[in-house]
Amino acid sequence: MSERNVVSWTLMVCGAIQCEEVEQGLEVFLEMRRNGFVPNEFGLGSVMKACGNRGEGREFGLCVHCFALKIGTERNPFVGCSVLTFYAKLGDIGAAERVFESLEEVDVGCWNAMIGGYAHCGYGFEAIGTVSLMRRKGIFMDKYTFINVIQGCSLLGDLNFGRRIHGLIIRGELEFSAPVMNALMDMYFKNGGINSGLVVFKKMHDRDVVTWNTVFGSFSQHEDPKDIASLFHSFLLTSMRPNRITFSILFRECGKLLNLDLGLQFCCLALHFGLFDEANITSALINMFSRCGKMEMAYLVFKSKVSENVIIWNELISGYKLNCCDAEALKTFYDLLQLGVEANEYTFSNVLETCSRSENQLMSRLIHGVAFKSGFASHGHVCSSLIKGYIKFGRLDDSLKVFNMLDRPDMAAWGTMISAFVHQGFYCEAIRSLNLLIEAGEKPDEFILGSILSSCAGTVAYCQTKSVHSLIIKLGFEGHVFVASAVLDAYAKCGDIQSAKMAFNQSCKSNDVVIYNAMIIAYAHHGRVVEALDTYDKMKLANLQPSQATFVSVIAACGHIGHVEKGCHLFKSMNLYGMEPSPDIYGCLVDMLSRNGYLEDAKQIIETLPYPAAFKTFSAYEATGQAIIYYLLMAGFLLALWYSGFYIGM
C-alpha cells in the first residue's frame, strides 16, 4: 500500500491474530508503533486478547495495558473487556476486578468477561454472585453469560442453581444454541447428574462434534462397556467424523475405567481415521496405559513419538508417578533436561511430588533450584508441590517461605497449605492460616473449610468448631456434603453430640450416604448405639445404599450392646447390595462375636478368612484349651491394620 493508515494497520494486526499467527500479529503491532501510528481500541483489544492466550505474553500484555492507560483508552468497553480477560487468564483476578470497576460503560460483554474470569480462576461462588447482580440490574443475559455461569455452577457443584439456570435457558429460548446446551450437559455430567445430562443430550436439536465429545467425557460414569460401544456406534452413524479431541477423550475415559480392551479397539479406529500421529492422541494413549498399569506399553508409545512436546514428557512422568515408579520418573525428568526440552510448571510439580512421596529431600531441593533458575518457582502448581513436600519433610519454615513467594496466593495455594498442615498434624498452623486468609480479604472455599474442621476435630477445639460453623453458614456452604459431614464429625469429636445431631438434621435433606455414615459413626463413638441403628433404618427408608463404612459402624455398634443376631443379619444383608465384606467388616464381626461369648462362631469366621497359611503356625495349640484365643489373637493382628477396635475384643 502506498498510504497506510490506522485502519489498515489494525486490519493487519487483527487478521494475523485471528489466523492464529500471533507472533506475526504482535510484530505488525510493534512496526505500527515504530511508524508513529497510535492504535485504536480494536487494535489494542485484539493484542491484549492474544497476550492472554499466550503463557509467555504476560510482559508484552502489561506493556500494552500501560500504553492504553497513557493514551486514555483503558476505559473503553472493548479495551477494558480485553484487559480484564488478559488478567483473568493470568490468574490475577484482583487486577481483573479493578479493571472492571474502573470501566465507565459496562455492557453485557464486560459482564460476561468478568463472570468468565471468575469461572476461569475457579471462583464459582463469585461467578454466580455476579450473574445475580447482573439480573438485579436488569441487564440482558446472552448465550455467553449462560455458558460462563454454567461453568461457575459446575465449579461449585451447585446442581440446584444449575437447574434454575436451565429453566432460564428454556425461558430465553436458547435450547437451540449448541454451545449453551453443551456447557449445560457438561455441568450435569461433572457433578453426578448423568441422567439429567443425557436428557439434555436427547432433547438437543443441533448436535455437533463438541456435543458428542462432551457425552464421551462422561464414559467413566458408565459401568457397562457395551453401553459405551453402543453410544460411539450411534455417533459413527451420523455424518460427523471423530476428531483428535474425540479419541483423546476416549482413551482417557478408558483409562479411568481401567478397560484396556475397549481402549485398544479405539486405537484401531484412531489409526483408521489417520489421527494416530497427533500429539494429544499420544499423550492420551500414555495416560490410558499408565492408568491400566501397563507402563511398558506407555513407554513404547512414548519412544515411538519422541518429540520436544513437553506435554508428552509430562504424561510419561505422571504415569511413572501414578505407578510408584519414582526412579523412572526422575530419570525421565533428567533425560528431558539433557535433550533440551523446556520443562513447564506441570513437569516440576510432578517430579517434586515424586520426591516428596519417596522422601528424597536432597533431590527435592535440587529440583527446587532448577525450577527457580527456570523461572517456575513462583508458579501456582510448583509452589503447591513444594509446600506439600516441605511440610512432609517437617520443614515448616521452608514451606512458609515458598508460600510467601506468591504475589497473591489463589484459593488453590491456600488450600494446599492448609490441607498439608492438617494431613501432617499441624492443626494449630492450619487454623492460623485460615485467619490469615480471611485477613487477606479472601473467602475460603468448601474444601478449605472441610480441612479446617478436620483440624478442629483433631485438636478437640470446640470454640473454633463453632466459629468455623458460623462462617460456613454465612458463606452458604452448609448444604455441601463434604462440609456438612466435616461439621458433624467435628462436633462429635468435641463431645457435643447434640450439635452434631442438629447439623445432621439440617443437612440430611441432601439425601447423601456420606452424611448418614458420619452420623452413625458419631453415635457409635458416643455409645449411642440405639440412635446409630435408628439412623441406619432412616437411611434405608431414604432409599440410600449403605457403603462398607456403614456396615463397619452398625456391626460394631451391635457388638457393643450385645445385639449379635441383629449384627449377623446386617452382615448377611450385604449380599442384597452386591457387596463383598472387606477385612475391617470381618474384624467387626469377629469382635462382636468374641465380645459376647460366641467364640466357636468367631473361630469359624476366622478359618474362612483368606489367610489360611498364616494360621498353620498356631496348629500346635490345638491340643490345648487355648486354641480359640490364639486364633483370635492372630486375626486381631491381621485385621487391626484396618480396624483398631478389634484389639478391644481381645
Automatic annotation (TrEMBL):
Residue stretches of each PPR repeat: 5-39, 107-141, 410-444, 512-546, 547-581
PROSITE patterns cross-referenced by the UniProt entry: PPR
InterPro entries recorded: PPR_At4g14850-like_plant, PPR_rpt, TPR-like_helical_dom_sf
Any one GO molecular function term: RNA binding
GO biological process: plant organ development; RNA modification
Oxidoreductase listed as a keyword: no
Domain of life according to the entry: Eukaryota
Transmembrane segments: 628-648
Alphabetical keyword list: Membrane, Repeat, Transmembrane, Transmembrane helix
Name the UniProt record assigns to this protein: Pentatricopeptide repeat-containing protein
Species the sequence originates in: Salix koriyanagi
Pfam families (UniProt xref): PPR, PPR_2
